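Please fill in the sequence for the structure shown.

STRUCTURE ENCODING:
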């Protein structure tokens, strides 16, 4: 129950600091590209570009979750793509982190190092931390559910 509650608590943080931040960043920069002159644009092309943009939003997260395993197996390109995805995710998440923390900025001299440290820490969690904790707790919850179902099907006998 604790792990499931942790996941439900993490979902708004993942949405606000990662998914929605990446969507806002992409939407802002897509407007620059779509504002460019394109001769005779077919009506289906903007719809396809929207689907492509939505798919590209999930790509860095999928790379961050799956490619470290490939890198451990010796696929060097997977390691490089992982760090590229982390950097891209950090670039897209930073405006949201800065917007969130600027509300807490004070003018005292000792607040600047604290605020800088808060930027670094929250950017780490927005980029990798929240998703990692969510993935780990989800796997643990899934394994515990499967174990519980297995015990329902094949109960443990006394003395085994």
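FILLED IN BY: designer on duty
SEQUENCE:
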């Amino acid at each position: 129950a604790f792990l499931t509650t942790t996941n439900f608590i993490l979902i708004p943080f993942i949405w606000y600091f990662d998914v929605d931040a990446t969507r806002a960043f992409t939407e802002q920069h897509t407007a620059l590209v779509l504002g460019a002159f394109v001769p005779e644009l077919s009506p289906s092309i903007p719809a396809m570009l929207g689907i492509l943009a939505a798919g590209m939003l999930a790509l860095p997260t999928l790379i961050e979750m799956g490619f470290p395993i490939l890198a451990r197996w010796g696929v060097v390109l997977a390691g490089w793509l992982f760090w590229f995805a982390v950097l891209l995710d950090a670039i897209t998440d930073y405006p949201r982190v800065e917007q969130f923390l600027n509300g807490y900025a004070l003018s005292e001299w000792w607040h600047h190092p604290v605020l800088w440290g808060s930027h670094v820490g929250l950017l780490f969690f927005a980029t990798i931390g929240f998703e990692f904790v969510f993935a780990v707790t989800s796997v643990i919850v899934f394994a515990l559910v499967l174990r519980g179902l297995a015990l329902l099907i094949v109960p443990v006998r006394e003395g085994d």
